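Figure 6 in text form: structure in, sequence out.
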């Protein structure tokens, strides 16, 4: 009987113990691999989302907040850049592109991203891949909408459909309760005076823009200018009504100002910009320029704006979450250590029932060294079975996590791990199992033949 047959029968005889011991190894390996895969793939997804811009300009409180709000669409920026300031900044450096954006409105809870046509022709969502259309075309006039792939999927809209946008991002009941507001959720203000036509749907990019509805920034300005004019008229009507009771001036003014606001009605205060995607002029085929640090320092000297370098802020974000990564990896290491202890206990406890079996093998000619190797090999095989199962669980688990990230955040993560790192984790788990099997192997090696072959009873 060869060694493999002996080990196989030994594991089969302790089927339940074998399964649970292997599972403990599998959990440790899967947890470690998923953490490593999601950490590296998540970082790549964030870097991909910032595209080919060099700088982001905004009026947010700090650069990281600016990146989260204006690039990853986490929340509408609280303060805008005035249009006069935008024009001033546009003249300060040799920009390859200087694209204004406005975030604030929504549709069915999805953000509306207002910008200019340059967003599609010059900004690339991936540093090397331009925007691609799944169907339709890019917008080229006011009140046209281009849907990100995720937005199209969630809303069911298609080219030719017409929609009205909602002012702001409506808050849920839970969000209102967190702010101490009770009662019914207030109805959101819908800009139903203007209908936006869907003209195109984008191919997936893997970034946050996939869950946005993109439209021309001038149309977004007109929406809010109309609200401003309506508010001014209502205040004027109310003031006049107070002066002359009994005369229905309000009805007259409502009738007089039924005409919709147009671009000609815009004033400087209407032309608000919440962020600017900027890229410094570079040589053809190059992504870097010696001018970037100079322009960055020049922009930072202006106290009225916040300047962010996406790559730096993504590094900062991952340094912040890096401590969490370390905690999780430490937890995975603890699970791995506990799986090693499980192997040790399972084999050690089995020695008490296997001493007679070992003594018989010795009588049949097996040396003490061979017995030692058999028990150690059994421990290594338990580790290998658990590691193999852990790799399979990790691949499935990473896909589930990536799907949840895509569903909840619109962030496309492609789980992957460097082959060498995967080998290190698997080999480490097997070696740990081997170390755990040393003590039971020594116990088996020292088993007394004469003592354990005495008649039972």
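Output sequence:
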């Amino acid at each position: 009987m060869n060694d493999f047959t002996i080990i196989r029968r030994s594991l089969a005889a302790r089927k339940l113990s074998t399964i649970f011991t292997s599972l403990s190894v599998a959990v440790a390996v899967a947890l470690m691999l998923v953490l490593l895969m999601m950490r590296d793939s998540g970082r790549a997804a964030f870097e991909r989302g910032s595209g080919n811009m060099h700088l982001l300009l905004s009026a947010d409180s700090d650069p990281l907040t600016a990146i989260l709000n204006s690039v990853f669409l986490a929340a509408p920026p609280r303060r805008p850049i005035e249009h006069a300031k935008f024009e001033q900044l546009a003249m300060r450096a040799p920009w390859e592109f200087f694209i204004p954006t406005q975030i604030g409105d929504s549709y069915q809870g999805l953000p509306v991203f207002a910008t200019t046509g340059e967003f599609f022709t010059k900004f690339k969502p991936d540093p090397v891949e331009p925007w691609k259309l799944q169907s339709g075309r890019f917008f080229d006039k006011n009140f046209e909408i281009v849907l990100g792939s995720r937005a199209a999927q969630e809303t069911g809209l298609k080219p030719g459909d017409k929609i009205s946008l909602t002012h702001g991002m409506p808050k849920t009941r839970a969000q209102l309760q967190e702010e101490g507001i009770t009662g019914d959720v207030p109805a959101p203000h819908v800009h139903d005076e203007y209908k936006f036509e869907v003209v195109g749907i984008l191919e997936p990019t893997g970034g946050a823009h996939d869950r946005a509805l993109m439209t021309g920034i001038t149309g977004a300005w007109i929406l809010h200018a109309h609200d401003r004019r309506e508010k001014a008229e209502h205040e004027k009507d109310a003031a006049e009504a107070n002066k002359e009771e009994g005369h229905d001036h309000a009805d007259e003014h409502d009738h007089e100002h039924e005409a919709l606001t147009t671009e000609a009605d815009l004033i400087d205060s209407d032309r608000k910009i919440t962020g600017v995607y900027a890229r410094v002029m570079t040589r053809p085929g190059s992504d870097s320029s010696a001018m970037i640090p100079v322009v960055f320092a020049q922009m930072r000297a202006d106290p009225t704006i916040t300047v962010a370098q996406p790559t730096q802020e993504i590094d900062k974000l991952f340094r912040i979450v890096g401590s969490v990564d370390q905690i999780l990896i430490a937890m995975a290491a603890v699970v791995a250590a506990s799986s090693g202890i499980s192997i040790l206990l399972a084999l050690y406890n089995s020695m008490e029932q296997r001493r007679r079996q070992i003594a018989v093998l010795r009588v049949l000619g097996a040396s003490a060294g061979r017995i030692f190797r058999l028990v150690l090999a059994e421990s290594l095989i338990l580790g290998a079975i658990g590691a193999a199962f852990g790799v399979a669980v990790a691949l499935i688990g990473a896909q589930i996590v990536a799907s949840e990230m895509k569903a909840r955040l619109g962030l496309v993560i492609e789980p992957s791990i460097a082959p060498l790192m995967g080998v290190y984790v698997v080999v480490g788990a097997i070696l740990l199992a081997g170390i755990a099997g040393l003590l039971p192997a020594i116990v088996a090696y020292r088993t007394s033949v004469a003592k354990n072959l005495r008649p039972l009873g």
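Caption detail: Residues 3-45+317-452 form one domain.
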